[in-house]
Amino acid sequence: xxxRFVLFVNKQGQTRLAQYYEHVSIDERxxxxxxxxxxxxxxxxxxxxxxxxxxxxxxxxxxxxxxEHRNYKVVYxxxxxxxxxxxxxxxxxxxxILEFIHLFVETMDHHFGNVCELDIMFHxxxxxxxxxxxxxxGCIVETSDVEVVEK
Amino acid sequence: MxxxxxxxxxxxxxxxxxxGQSKEFLDLVKSIGEARSKAEEDRIISxxxxxxxxxxxxxxxxxxxxxxxxxxxxxxxxxxxxxxxxHIHAVKMTHDESLPLKRTGYLAVAxxxxxRHDLVILVVNTIQKDLRSDNYLVVCAALTAACRLIGExxxxxxxxxxxxxxxxxxxxxxxxxxxxxxRFYQRSPSSVSHLVSNFRKRLCDNDPGVMGATLCPxxxxxxxxxxxxxxxxxxxxxxxxxxxxxxxxxxxDYHQMPAPFIQIKLLKILAVLGSGDKQASGHMYTxxxxxxxxxxxxxxxxxxxxxxxxxxxxxIFPNPKMLDAAxxxxxxxxxxxxxxxxxxxxxxxxxxxxxxPDIAEEHQLAVIDCLEDPDxxxxxxxxxxxxxxxxxxxxxxxxxxxxxxxxxxxxxxxKTEIASRCVELxxxxxxxxxxxxxxxxxxxxxxxxxxxxxxAHNLMRLIAEGFGEEDEGADSQLRSSAVxxxxxxxxxxKLPSSFLQIICWVLGEYGTADGKYSAxxxxxxxxxxxxxxxxxxxxxxxxISAILKIFAFxxxxxxxxxxxxxxxxxxxxxxxxxxxxxxxxxxxxQALLGLDKQAVETVMPSDASCEDIEIxxxxxxxxxxxxxxxxxxxxxxxxxxxxxxxxxxxxYRAQDQQETSAHVLRFEAYExxxxxxxxxxxxxxxxxxxxxxxxxxxxxxxxxxxQMSRSQPSxxxxxxxxGVKLRLDGVQKKWGRPxxxxxxxxxxSTSSQQATNGGSSSVVGGSTSSQARESSYGxxxxxxxxxxxxxxxxxxxxxxxxxxxxxxxxxxxxxxAKESPTEKVATVNAxxxxxxxxxxxxxxxxxxLDLGEPVSSRPPSADPFTQLEGLLGPASASPVLPETSAxxxxxxxxxxxxFSDDVQTGVTSGSTxxxxxVNVVAAKKGPSLQDALQKDATARQVxxxxxxxxxxxxxxxxx
Lengths: 151, 959
What we know:
- The structure holds two protein chains of two kinds.
- In chain A, 38% of the residues lie in helices and 25% in strands.
- Chain A has four helices and seven strands.
- Chain A has helices spanning 26-46, 94-112, 117-122, 124-134, and strands spanning 3-10, 15-20, 66-69, 72-79, 82-88, 135-136, 139-140.
- In chain A, the strands form two sheets. Chain A has a five-stranded antiparallel β-sheet, sandwiched between helices. Chain A has a two-stranded antiparallel ribbon with strand order 6-7.
- In chain A, a hairpin with a 4-residue loop joins β1 and β2.
- Chain A starts with a strand and ends in an 11-residue tail after the last strand.
- By secondary structure, chain B is an all-alpha fold.
- In chain B, α18 packs parallel to α21 (376-388) and α24 runs antiparallel to α25 (453-465).
- The interface between A and B is large, with 80 and 115 residues.
């Protein structure tokens, strides 16, 4: 199956985009998003994110971008105010997913030009369409930028 | 600056809403965006839903407006509110002619409904129609929807069309058709089993996108049945080779890496195909070697590919050269400063040690560092590695560590996992029974409710059987130590149920065996347990049976024992319990108290829990009774099956029951037909619930029941035992005496020996390289020496291979001790370099995204200052690329502003920053200037301003 869900969450833990590749009821989604956000956002929040207050690598430690949750893993990455979280099966290559997130952000950037959180909020459906092009059935299918042209 | 702002405002005026959405929608987005708390957000959405309900009830909403309303519904559901009242409108929108509306309709349906929902049937028809469309974009939309919405029953309805579309001239359609077929395969493999050859065909598609997509279904198919696809190995290897040689269009490149995601998928497939197949693996070595050689360890994606290579190599038929390369890369990962890479390294190490356990030894210190890292994810991964490398020599250290960690975590899921791992390792490698019992006690104490009940029974068995040999003294010592420890623990609050069961059983069986504790003391303790857990019937049952046993042993020894008043009240209470099991036990106890010494001795022999009980299935001891009955003129028994005409007793009864209950609705399932038992009377006793509450075969209970029932005067309970037998042989017997009892001593002595070795040598090592270390490593290493001694000891106990190799290991320990400081120094020295290396290549390429990269990608060894210097340094120094240097300075400004806490500077960052930098960036990017201005203008129009509540909304995600 590979990818189980893709979530965009902002710093306050508010969902900005949610796409599940298997059926999850609304209540379960709520619970799951709450749990994951608590797990993923908490540690990195308290840590300097390449911050200017970070005096050097010896004291500023970086946690893994992966978190095990229930029986799968969540790979997450932060861009400015937004966290991009991807839930994957255990046999998935975490680093590749991490880079896939970046690729997705690049693609959005390509389309919107200097993409920001507001773009995603205003164009939720476009972001969904892009995601649909890149991930089908929980697999990464398209990684070239061409699909932007399609819309 | 001012100019740009005015232009923006003018643009906004002109375009009226900018994105073609109404003020209401923008308002909604704005208010959600600026909501400060979940509660506020919930309020906004509830209000919104009220409004939407009203609006959607209106019969003539314009179509474009409807799209917007749907998106607002999507928002509501995304934020966790039920918007099912609007689902039908999403379905309706899929009928729309206009493509954007149709797509939105499909999207909304896919987000709202799952394939089993009733409304989906209405969409299937639309999908069918759209698959026949002339416009390939409509076909694409329909195929995407098919991937999300077609359930098992609907597959036949669209399958023929999807198969046809596999040969569509447009590659986008072919790709989506492949994925739709893949989805059908996931849902119901049998429905498309005759079509799998299509996937093979599509693998040779001219378009790399279609080929890449085809890998997904093929991977699933190959996982299922690798043998049917061995012929494709050569093709896969060829494709991988071509991809690695950059034969694909550059649009598939990602950070100068050719189609990395396709490479990774191919490597996954090869790993499955080459597993245990020497010939197939033979084809792969060359290309894998190439990939390793080209491997780029400076970028994440390069490392992702290398990691996948390691996975592949550890899965296929081993090749020493490949393994060396894999081990080398793994050690690079482990030595990295990035937690992500360490994590991958630990995982890779876990794979490699399956093939060659010695690889781990080289990385002892790195592994221990990861184990002690505060990062939970890394720690867990390391425990996984330790679990894989556990042997009888290091089991004690590893399991101790695991338990220590287990105690401190709250995550239910992981606690269960680690507890069961502890149990598994302890059962497999326990050096001694004593240790095993202690370990199990700890596991039960902290996670008793999470482990399989089977484990509890195993533990009781072990205590009962002891070493299972002639050494009775050791056995009883073991038991009395168990009793001691349980008496200590039993008073503690909140013990898990299964642990209490063990405690009760052991106390009942062996509490008085060594004469250290008086019967009344033990009974008092057991009474306390029963009293403290009034709701747990199983624990109470164990407790009362244990009390019974103590009484029985005392009576058998001829000692007079008085019933404590509170104990008597407990028995009274239980004999009126709602649980028939507890009642029976209580009555058994009372009956036993009335028996004489002889009878009690036969009923409850002391320490006989391990004895087999002989069951006379023919009930031959009743022969005399039967004979007598015959003589008195009784009719001989005819088995029910052989009777003709006569309706059996049981069916009478069944009929009876049915008649009485015929008027009422019966909710429970029908009982399984019971074969009637030889004795008619047995009908009564078969339903006695003696074993109902303790479903797992558990020796003592059956035995007790058995023996109790034998002593009962009436014969009717005899059959209660029928068919129940102690199953002592079926249970795994994992702990054995011969190897373990002796190994514990040597291993501990070697580890201490090694510790001294390690200690002294680390001092030597310290002095040789102390200068370098002090300068670079600073404070962290000051406490280093003791820490490292401790770590060395830990390393020795974890990684030491066997007691026989003690000498060699001593040397090895010394060697690593000497190496470790220099190694560390080396990594420290090396760290500034990667940072620079990363930055320098990122400056020259004209793509602006790459410049922004260092910010977003969290480079492993990032010191932001050196990075900034790096950015500024080479770029501005090079006169050849004035544009890039200009933009890089602007980016730097951006960087600084992003990280400053001041809101004012935060405001100027992002799209509104009208500095020279943005100008350059925008000019280079073409449309983005206009975009940015428009974005800003629209936002302002609605009232979302960078100076508002939530300026961060404007921050560029990438820069």
